[in-house]
Design goal:
Chain lengths: 438, 304
């Protein structure tokens, strides 16, 4: 099935890609006009955020002329993205869709997103957003292909009680992290679990290290999965794997939850939403966790990576980009919406003001009363800007994950997995007639 | 269809001395009988353990699911869990369940009627192109429904019927396999003599079909209905592609959607578990209640 879809889309893609690259960087192609409609409009908005209906209801009450109908379904890779592509092709896509940062280039390359840079309000809101989130939706171009919604700055979750009991310092650099890993192993635990199946975490590590996986100069894509920084990070983790210093449970499984719940695994370098994953997956450890800034590659640095986050994008075919953009801005910048989204689905805002929401200033019981979101607010502003996602992330993730799974069981290495992911990604881009540099 | 050729008489094994007094067939040796029971027992356990796990997990708090014995109860919270599930988002789950019953029940019934009529016509009337039509329908059996979902989506987009009840219902009332089965069954179980007698008595073709032939064909129709019911109930891909409006989702797709959101909203885990448990109840009820017709019909044919 997927194959058939791919074939159907490839035809579409190739024509759109030609259009896209003929305009090139710094293009003179004008952004579409962004004018209000004459009468009342109704917008469709597809997302998978649970409980977002209540947030949208606030908007609908206040804006009788711009009514928004929410449709929720499975998450993006669970089928909603494929549906968007089908609907864009059939010409009946919803006006607004939730699109994660790592999927935006895919939609952009396939011509699925409306450029909002013609909307004055959108351009005026640029400085409200944390800088790197804005570059996630502009893709380094003049255009604006979505409104940042949430972000996933990364920090170090650790078992405060176990570290104190064993007399181990909380690591601040990756070198210290490895040293701590050896001590933890001597205590019978693992310092962390290396996620072999969820490549996003590893991408976050590369991001923090200042690496890139993709580049786009406006004409062609470069693939840098096996670039020096990326391979350095891989080698670091390979070392931990080789010496049996990290556990390798598949992410998001009961086994994985249990490893945290039982105290087998002591830390997790994860995104802000991970706070909830631990609280629900390891209920027996309540009160024992704390959060510290992520370990650094160079002592004294304050770099952070990011894992996850999405945007609200206007999809091609929408008749009302002005109203859609207006709603998306309200949803993702107004304090009432951000507070409601955080309460309903733990979304962590992408705006500067949002980082200071009262709800994010409180201590969290599960973390011994620590105001953990202060750590993430700092991290959010230290996320390395300009990390670029490729247009075929689904394929890239799955190819690299295949290699990582082998590496976790001792066949091959992480660096080899990146090498082979690099080649397969280039093949996939070329198969879709997407220009590749070199 | 092994059930159609199964020669076992229906009334045989009811009494306690079945082994000694079996009226026909070779006498079973104790060894082979034990072996057969053993194999069946193993498979029964194999199929029932997941159900048992589901029942047990549905009765726990989210925390207990990971920390307590997966195959035995901790705190019995099935009632509360059910209550929470049914109340969650104003009874969205019940709505999904109702949708599934509607898609599968109504869809299955209409599909059975259409397949029955088509199969009957193909078996009992002679007309030009009959075999060609039958062969084309047979070809339809070979095409997996999943492969048709995307083309159907594009077609339905043209007539603006996506994201409606019809988008899932209309494709569900087509059952090529049903046509095949009813044709074979009608050819075997509806004698031409009866049809001729009916015609002589002045009964119209429609009346003959609905009053007589349909009843003669009922075992095949029940089979077709059960198959189609289960197929529609479990059809996941079509709703995934066609539907956007939560209030139209069938229960399978709705639960899948929740399951993909577990990372964000871990509380949904309980709802997914309990929801999965409840969602298999209608299937079990349908099977158990229709099984009687199924067997009666077969038995009636066998001892004629």
């Amino acid at each position: 099935m997927k194959h058939i879809t791919t074939v159907a889309l490839t035809a579409l893609v190739s024509s759109l890609t030609l259009a896209a690259c003929s305009s090139g960087a710094g293009s003179t192609e004008a952004a579409p006009e962004c004018a209000p409609a004459d009468g009342p409009v109704t917008l469709e908005f597809t997302t998978w955020i649970p409980g977002i209906e209540d947030v949208v209801a606030i908007w609908n009450d206040a804006n009788p002329d711009i009514q928004v109908e929410v449709q929720t379904g499975p998450n993006g890779n669970g089928g909603t993205y494929q549906n968007f592509f089908n609907q864009i092709e059939a010409g009946n896509a919803p006006d607004l869709g939730q699109i994660e940062y790592d999927a935006i280039p895919n939609f952009r390359v396939q011509g699925g997103l409306v450029d909002l840079s013609g909307c004055e309000e959108v351009m005026a809101a640029k400085d409200d957003f944390v800088d790197w989130t804005w570059s996630q939706v502009t893709l380094g171009s003049e255009g604006v292909y979505g409104i940042p919604q949430d972000s996933g700055p990364m920090a170090l979750f650790y078992r405060k009680d176990l570290f104190e009991k064993a007399g181990i310092e909380v690591p601040t650099t990756w070198d210290e992290y490895r040293a701590a890993a050896e001590k933890v192993r001597a205590e019978g635990g693992y310092i962390t679990n290396f996620s072999q199946t969820d490549i996003n975490q590893f991408a976050g590590f590369v991001w923090q290290a200042g690496g890139q996986w993709f580049g786009n100069d406006g004409d062609a894509w470069s693939v840098e999965l096996a670039s020096d920084t990326s391979v350095d990070v891989a080698d670091y983790w390979q070392g931990l794997l080789d010496d049996d210093l990290v556990a390798t449970h598949p992410a998001w499984t009961d086994e994985w939850n249990n490893a945290y719940n039982s105290g087998e695994v002591w830390t997790w370098v994860s995104a802000v939403w991970g706070a909830n994953s631990i609280a629900s997956g390891a209920p027996d450890t309540a009160g024992s966790w704390a959060v510290a800034p992520a370990p650094q590659w160079n002592e004294g640095d304050e770099a952070a990576g990011n894992w996850g986050g999405s945007s609200t994008a206007v999809l091609t075919g929408s008749d009302h980009p002005y109203e859609a953009a207006k709603f998306a801005l309200w949803l993702n910048t107004s304090e009432e919406a951000l507070t409601a989204l955080n309460a309903a689905a733990n979304l962590y805002p992408a705006t500067k003001a949002g980082l200071e929401l009262p709800a994010l200033k409180e201590g969290v019981d599960f973390y011994g009363g620590q105001a953990i979101y202060d750590v993430f607010a700092d991290a959010a502003q230290q996320v390395v800007p300009d990390f670029t996602w490729g247009p075929t992330m689904t394929q890239t993730y799955s190819d690299v994950a295949d290699g990582f799974k082998s590496a976790a069981t001792g066949a091959g290495t992480l660096a080899e997995a990146l090498e082979s992911g690099q080649q397969k990604t280039i093949d996939a881009l070329e198969a879709q007639s997407i220009p590749v540099a070199e | 269809m092994s059930i159609l050729v199964d020669p076992t008489p229906q009334q045989a094994p009811a009494d306690a001395h079945a082994e000694a007094s079996s009226p026909r067939g070779p006498r079973d040796s104790r060894l082979s009988r034990t072996g057969a029971m053993l194999v069946m027992g193993v498979f029964t356990v194999y199929f029932l353990v997941p159900l048992w796990w589901l029942l047990v997990a549905s009765s726990k708090t989210p925390g207990d699911v990971f920390t307590t014995n997966p195959l035995w109860f901790a705190d019995m919270r099935l009632g509360e869990n059910l209550g929470e599930l049914f109340a969650f988002r104003d009874g969205l789950y019940l709505r999904w369940l109702g949708n599934s019953v509607l898609y599968a029940g109504l869809g299955g019934a209409v599909a059975t009627l259409i397949a029955g009529m088509a199969g009957y016509a193909l078996a009992k009337y002679r007309f030009r192109g009959r075999e060609t039509i039958f062969n084309i329908v047979l070809g339809g059996v070979l095409v997996p429904a999943t492969a048709l979902a995307l083309p159907l989506f594009l077609l339905f987009s043209k007539i603006e019927l996506t994201n409606t009840f019809w988008a899932v219902f209309l494709p569900s009332i087509v059952s090529p396999f049903g046509v095949y089965l009813t044709r074979i069954f009608a050819a075997a179980s509806v004698p031409d003599e009866i049809l001729e007698a009916a015609r002589l008595d002045g009964s119209g073709e429609m009346r003959t079909f609905f009053t007589m032939s349909l009843r003669l064909m009922s075992p095949a129709l029940v089979t077709v209905f059960l198959f189609q019911f289960v197929t529609i109930w479990n059809n996941f891909f079509l709703p995934l592609i066609m539907l956007r409006d939560q209030s139209l989702f069938p229960v399978t797709f709705g639960l899948y959607g929740w399951n993909t959101q577990l990372n964000q909203i871990p509380e949904l885990r309980t709802y997914v578990l309990v929801g999965a448990l409840v969602s298999i109840v209608p299937l079990i009820v349908t099977f158990l209640s229709l099984q009687r017709f199924w067997r009666n019909g077969l038995g009636a044919g066998a001892v004629k």
